[in-house]
């Protein structure tokens, strides 16, 4: 599976115009998560994201691993992304300290049930280094993310964030920012277009809320390789149902398999 996941990402993220559709699950219990992933899997996303910050037993690492194994069994060949957002990053409140978050992510990297890890780039470099080492050793993809829920930084700042993510060893660099007007959305698309030409890693960008929905719909045309879509429940404002995105991509028809 590790080799297959690496090959899929290399081929489709770096060489194809087709984006990956990622659908989150946010259940609080094992039972809720099983129901949710079963419903999502039949919609054929490219990736399923487990937002583990919503899981009520997140403090119990072995329960997290147990649930990850069950989710992998239910989703079968669909790669699983594990994401743990803090409140400042738009996540659900948890009882874990920043040290425990690093421990959990390293612990989950050592299993065969999760294929990708998402971690915020504003965390200390040493924490990122530890997670990167674990991801690399165990064949996981690392997404380094940046979130700004108040504004869209300048183009220069956004490009520098992308470059920093690459320098820190990210396999994918992700930026999600808040637009204050349509000009902010256009700027983000422009930076996305620039980033795909100057970076050696894939990028994912999104402008938040309804004002930024167009970036989720058409950002892939400008080089964003990952689109977060709704399967059953939204994990962030502005996400579009996966069925609508699948049809939209087919309609535009500017990619080749």
TrEMBL record:
Residues of the active site: 147, 174
Pfam families hit by this protein: DHquinase_I
Keywords from the UniProt entry: Amino-acid biosynthesis, Aromatic amino acid biosynthesis, Lyase, Schiff base
Enzyme class at the top of the EC tree: lyase
Catalyzed reaction equations: 3-dehydroquinate = 3-dehydroshikimate + H2O
Entry-linked Gene3D superfamilies: Aldolase class I
GO molecular function: 3-dehydroquinate dehydratase activity
Binding site for 3-dehydroquinate: 49-51, 85, 216, 235, 239
Pathway it works in: Metabolic intermediate biosynthesis; chorismate biosynthesis; chorismate from D-erythrose 4-phosphate and phosphoenolpyruvate: step 3/7
Alphabetical list of CDD domains matching this protein: DHQase_I
EC number in record: 4.2.1.10
GO BP annotations listed: 3,4-dihydroxybenzoate biosynthetic process; amino acid biosynthetic process; aromatic amino acid family biosynthetic process; chorismate biosynthetic process
Family: Belongs to the type-I 3-dehydroquinase family.
Entry function: Involved in the third step of the chorismate pathway, which leads to the biosynthesis of aromatic amino acids. Catalyzes the cis-dehydration of 3-dehydroquinate (DHQ) and introduces the first double bond of the aromatic ring to yield 3-dehydroshikimate.
PANTHER family referenced in this protein's UniProt entry, alphabetically: 3-DEHYDROQUINATE DEHYDRATASE (PTHR43699)
Quaternary structure (record): Homodimer.
Protein name according to UniProt: 3-dehydroquinate dehydratase
Source organism of the structure: Bacillus yapensis
